Structure formats: structure tokens, C-alpha cells
Amino acid sequence: MRIALALGSGGARGYTHIGVIDEIHERGHEIVAISGTSMGSVIGGLEAAGRLDVFTDWVTTLRQTDVWRLLDPAFTGPGVFWGQRVMERVADILEGARIEDLPIPYTAVATDLTNSREVWFQRGSVATAMRASIGIPSVFTPVVVGGRLLADGGILNPVPVDTLLGIDADRTIAVSLSGRRAGDASAGPVTESADSEGLLGEISTLWRRGVLESERVRTLREWWAERFDEPADALEPAASGKDFDFGELPKGLRTSDVVSRSLETAEALITRFRMAASRPDVLVEFPQDIASTFDFHRASELIAQGRAKASEALDAAGL
User: Fold this and answer.
1) So which residues are the catalytic ones?
2) Are 109 and 41 in contact, with CB atoms under 8 Å apart?
3) What does the alpha-carbon distance between residue 39 and residue 98 come to, in Å, rounded to a whole number?
4) Which of 38, 246, 258, 294 lies at a 20 to 30 A Cα distance from 131?
């Protein structure tokens, strides 16, 4: 059966896309077109280029320390990381592939921040298209391509089913990484694996650092005390007063948790609206709490989850 495949955004959760693709191949179906947003654009582009197996062999060996080495802090840029180091490794795997030469038609989706519109990459460098698509706001710096400031495609189109309209396929399969969390959403901050807690804690620290100056970085507390001649503890939350009925913030809630949950909430809502307008034949959906955005050392586990979930969805659809 001829399959058109739309792969959604979701950071490291995107490893599940590999398992979905494996299951589709295992059942003897042919993937005839691929679209992807953010991590979905990376996995989709590698599959379209016939290089996904090489990428999989690499990421399944990554440890948390290896992931750290691939991160390139952007102390002077509009994001926590440049994202260049890891994309250079992916570019090496792609060996200069261009979208118009791929054996499988491929579209990567990014967001034009200047003009508030989607950009569909259907020509040019595959690596460039991927990097433009993965620019998660406040995490990876945006990039400029063709004079346009581009960021993560998930801002406007988390699961790009509509890019596949008109493709000669028997079925369209969409993979969403924005499903409801298994636990109570009000129970606390983002659920992280024990192994990733240190990584996200450090990233959260980078977010919480205050003002970046040419000589040195100082914390927001120090900057506040000097600028406004107030004690640093003025930034501490005051005790609940008689006019407020606030509850206690969840224990351990971090800035990175709030940013992540905010983006995921918006992404889930947009996904529902976009897929209502462009409904796939089969939806494979993963909850947001199967992994954190930065769990890139959990490839084998997430690929297995992807294959299992795809098997259930394809069985239900009679594929």
C-alpha cells in the first residue's frame, strides 16, 4: 500500500517516528511522500534520503554525556543553544542531499517569524531545511534563510498533514507527539526521567541567568539589587496576603518546565485544529510525557515505543 506520512514535532519524542517507519516497512507498505515539522523533519528527511538507518545506528549509541557534547550554548544568541553542532553531524550523514533529488518527495515546515506564516521547504539543502524547522523558541536560535527569520515549524503546524494533500497515496498516516499526558496535568512540573534531570536542570539554570553583559554574566538577583538599590531577597515571593487565594507552586517547578508546558499546550491545541481541517486516514498519537524534549539518550526505548504504538494503530486501521 502507498503511504503518505506526516511526522510531528516534539523534541526527543521524535525518535518514536523511527519505530513507526520501521513498522510501516515491516508490513510491506511503501512510503511515497513525507512531510515533517521539527524533529519530524529530521527523521522524515533522513528516511526520504535513504539514510535513516545510519542515523539510527548513531543515536542508539548516545549516552547523556554524548548529548551534552553535542550542545553548543548560545551565550550571545537568541536561544539557549545554536544547534549547529548536532546538525553538522546530521549533515555529514546526509552527504549533501538536496530535496529535489530525493527518491521520496519531502517537505520540511518552518515558521517565518517576520511575516507570521509557514514556510514549506520543497527544494534546496535538506540539512538547511531541517535546521530551520527545529528552532524551538528559547531553546534553539532561529536562523535566517533567504532573508526570512525562521523558527520551529511546530509554532504554526505541529503535524503537517496538509502538505501531503494531492499526493497519490492509498492512505495518509500522521504521527502526533502532542497527545494528552498520562498523569494529572495539575499534579506538578514536567515529568522527566531520572537521567535527564541533571541536563534539564542545567538548561533551566541557563534560562534563569539574568543579564548577559560583555564582561560577565550576573544573576538576575545581583543585577536587580544593583540597578534598583534593593536587597536581593526582594525577588523572593511574598507570603500570601489577605487579598490573594493563591495555592503553593508545585514543588520543584522550574522555568524550563513552564516554558516547555506552555509550548506543548499551544502545540496540542493547534494540532487538534489543524488535523480537524486536514484529517489523516490513520493517526498514531503519543502522549507528551513519554519523554522530555531533551531525552536524546533514550533512542532505543523510544523507537520501541514507536513501533508498538504504530502496530496498534495500523492493526486498528486494517493495515
Assistant:
1) 38, 152
2) yes
3) 18
4) 258
